[in-house]
Amino acid sequence: MPKFFIKTYGCQMNERDSEQVAHSLITRGYERATSETEADVVLLNTCSVRDMADQKALGKMGMLGRVAKDRPHVVFGFLGCMAQARGESLLKNLPHVDLVVGTQKFHRVADYVEDLIERKRDRRMDDPRLSIVDIAEESGSQEAIREQELKPKQATAFVSIMQGCNMHCAFCIVPQTRGSERSRSIAEIVHEVGALVAHGVKEVTLLGQIVNLYGRHEFPKVDDKNPFVQLLEAVHAIDGLERLRFTSPHPIGFRDDLIEAFSRLPKLAEHIHLPLQSGSNRMLKAMHRAYTMEKYVDLVRRLRRVRDGIALTTDIIVGFPGETEDDYKQTRDLVEELQFDNAFVFRYSPRRDTPAAKMSEQVDEQVKEQRNQDLLAVIDKSAFRANERLVGHKLEILCEGPSKTNPARLMGRTRTNKIVVFEGDDELAGELVDLRIERANGFSLYGTPMHEAGAFLATTAS
Fold this sequence. Notes:
The protein has 13 helices and 19 strands. By secondary structure, it is of the alpha/beta class.
């Protein structure tokens, strides 16, 4: 039985796309391989958001050339954003690459793999023209990402609700690699989530490049509610679903109806990843972000008022072209003021064919690194304070299984998306568990199941 190995770079949408490809291969009789050295099909699902992601994928495929020499029957392929952006050029310096598939063709991958395996079996791959490259647009491709292979006792799942982006931020290549916004129907999404819940999934995360702009071009408002809020209500109504999340939104997509939804939809988890990018209005304008620092702060305050204890995380770029020390200080001061639960801080990375790459006043790499480290220190303190406040509290966590850093322990997430590590029986995987939080660090919480904590307190008291 042939085996496949998929390595995924980048965001949750890429992870979800990889699962779609895996499912399509498994349904044809393929098995997952634990490493590329034992696989008959090796696929790299790529990211182009930062240059480093491109270089990692190219370097990995270059190293796989040695595997190709020893195992000429193996099919090697690039999928996803970098494949979309670079297309056939990826074949030039990597002669062992057989397949390049773009972002609207994941549902075609299994067909292409089978074709290539047959060609290799018939020894017809000496002709480089027999490699397959498909980066063409395909109408309706957003409806194709709807199946995934579930693991036993899987508690959480990602569901793609749309593809593409129309925002054209100055630093971002996504509109070129993912195309324009295209949304799935509410009925299709509800059907997929219902099937996941029937298999035991308790939490779903709705995915979109700008998820809260879902359906704005395809579907009408109903009762003054935007399509995304209509979707949240429809998914929220599914029996057996315990938690509902979404990522990643844009600040301009938080209309009154979405903010209000957090006050009346209890399954909607108390966590929002809300990209800031910069605290300087001058930089936000240069980035084409379509909001001001003042509007962002007002949105944060409204969200915190409408849902007590809501956790906010964010994305921030340092060293965007033209960013001065004063611009950076405004960002730093705003991060101090808002006290995020955590944040991803990125040094600006030029992406070809984006407006920012052509801007003058590119910031020196050493300055970027200094600002990056300085802001990370601010974020780490904020994250530690947020976690420390939870020590001694009872929290509901959804157990996802063994901890990645210590398989002898279990891990789960709170409704505010904080990781909690604890000791317990493997049977708790996939279940909601009440924990008493015993201690915290900047990244994780450590807890004890409440029945064990109660027994310990009773023993101590006697």
